[in-house]
Amino acid sequence: MHELPLVFFTVLTQAGAGAFIILYVAHKLSQVDSRQLGVGLFCAMVLFGLGAVCSTFHLGMPMRALNAFSGIGRSPMSNEILATALFGTVGGLSALGLLLKKGCSGVFNALAGIAVLLGIVFIAMIPRVYQLETVATWQNGYTTLVMVLTAPVCGGIIAAALGAVRLGALFGALGAGLSLALRSGYIDALAAANERLVQAQETWFTAQMALLVVVLAFCMMTFIGRLNNRAVLALVALLAIAAELAGRVAFYNLWFITM
Questions:
Q1: What residues form the membrane-spanning segments (predicted)?
Q2: CA–CA separation, 205 and 136 (whole Å)
Q3: What is the pLDDT of residue 73?
């Protein structure tokens, strides 16, 4: 699958950005201490960086990657790449500073706050790339919803595993619950565009839904205080990522040009 690097890019970077944002908010709500914040933000940025590296495998000629910045302001893809670079840089610097406790912590906290805003912009930029009039299965409001929900679904449970237990579990439960609630309407919209392609993705969509049900159940147990085992939460985070990867594979498999 030629788009596989983009599958990992979109899911892992959104998961990392989502975890970063939730951890920062949890710290402001005194749900994680400074040490947990430093470690958590660093882990979130490592995941984000891994996703960004995956995207380079989709480039036919990596040496010409800088050409993608030529369309900033008018090209959704250029805007997405710029948002990736800005969040990666500011988020990475703030996470590293808070982890190593180098210099004034107030400066790195402020940088983390700026990174949160950049992360929100980055998450919003990704689905804009796929609002193409020539691809009927992508040109709908559900594309934005299902892509944006990756951030709370994955980022929430990752944040919970990194210390923001209740807030992370809440975001994870809301994200998974909304994704499941939207599923019927999403499938109907896709079928109206190309029913044959949708039927071909049934296995991927079914796997995603089954995993999301498991993630939702564990997030709810965590939120009400019935689960607080970091190892289990880490495993659930992997299930959440697997669920979104399955959904994203199906999404890219839906590509076709209307005539």
A1: 6-26, 38-61, 81-100, 107-130, 142-162, 169-193, 205-224, 231-255
A2: 18
A3: 66
CB 48 within 8 A of CB 91: yes
- The parts of the chain modelled with pLDDT lower than 50 are 259
CATH architecture assigned to 3-253: Up-down Bundle (1.20)
Give the residue among 44, 66, 62, 43 at the shortest CA–CA distance from 54: 62
Distance, in Å, from the CA atom of 9 to the CA atom of 6, rounded to the nearest integer, reads 5
The one-character DSSP state at 158 is H
List CB contacts of 37: < 8 A, sequence separation 6 or more. 23, 24, 27, 98, 112, 163
Instruction: State the CB neighbour count (10 A cutoff) for residue 4.
Output: 15
Q: Give the count of alpha carbons within 13 A of 111, CB side only.
A: 21
Provide the whole-model pTM. Answer: 0.92
Contacts of 39 (CB under 8 A, 6+ apart): 99, 162, 163
Run of H or E including 97: helix 76-100
**Contact in structure between 14 and 154 (CB atoms under 8 Å):** yes
Tens digits of residue pLDDT in 14-38: 999 999 999 999 999 999 999 999 9
User: Which pLDDT belongs to residue 259?
Assistant: 46
From the number of C-beta atoms within 10 Å of its C-beta (0-12, 13-18, 19+), residue 154 rates as buried
The pLDDT assigned to 66 comes to: 57
> Which helix H or strand E contains 65, and what residues bound it?
none
**Hey, what are 164's tokens?**
């923001």
Which residues, at least 6 apart from 171, have a Cβ–Cβ distance to it below 8 Å?
A: 18, 22, 152, 155, 156, 159
8 A C-beta contact, residue 95 and residue 111: no
Which H/E stretch holds residue 162? Answer: none
Alpha carbon distance 86, 110 (integer Å): 15
